[in-house]
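ARCHIVE CARD
Drawer: 12
Card no.: 0347
Subject: one protein chain, sequence and derived structure
Cross-reference: see card 0346
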Amino acid sequence: MLSLQKIFKWYNNGVNRTFVLKDIHLDVAEGEFISIMGPSGSGKSSLLNVIGMLDEPNEGSYTFMGEDVFKLKEKQRSQLFKTHIGFVFQAYHLIDELTVYENIETPLIYQNIKTPERKSMVADMLDRFQIVGKKDLFPTQLSGGQQQLVGIARALIVKPKLILADEPTGNLNSKQGIEIMNIFKELNDEGVTIIQVTHSEKNAEYGERIVNLLDGRIVMN
């Protein structure tokens, strides 16, 4: 599904270079569930952002679904991302001014999907995550667990082939965290590829493969 080769990411600090990612080689097959682990500052989120096309490295190549990502025009890359990738963040990243319904619907508007189809797709998601009763509430009226469910529903609405999750249970209590991880497991069983960044060894075990990062390098894969 995707292949990262010789990925380097750095920041220039005067005459010095501060490396965030060093010589990353990573291949991910369709349907895999991968956990990325490592201490703070090891480059986990930076790696996820490169995979998610939110950031570009200084060197290296990235192939996603047969496309050479860094050779694509901005519009083509954006389309690839919107069509195939769903992002779930630790901080939820919901839009406070929009209701639960509107937050979930937003990605479909960007894809120019007609209103009747949008209504049907959002209704399916509200039903799947048992949040029909919350559809007219705003994010600030929800618990952390409910906000994360809305974030996952929004990520899934476009039926992505790949879900990227950055510390998806970081702000949740243990019961909510288990519920979220079980949802990811179900999705993976349905064929969705998942790459999660986590500090939790318990969460990492949901993945079939753990990629360990240290100082921007993969140390065990």
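Annotation on reverse: Helices lie at 44-51, 74-84, 100-110, 115-128, 144-156, 174-189, 201-204. The mean pLDDT is 93.
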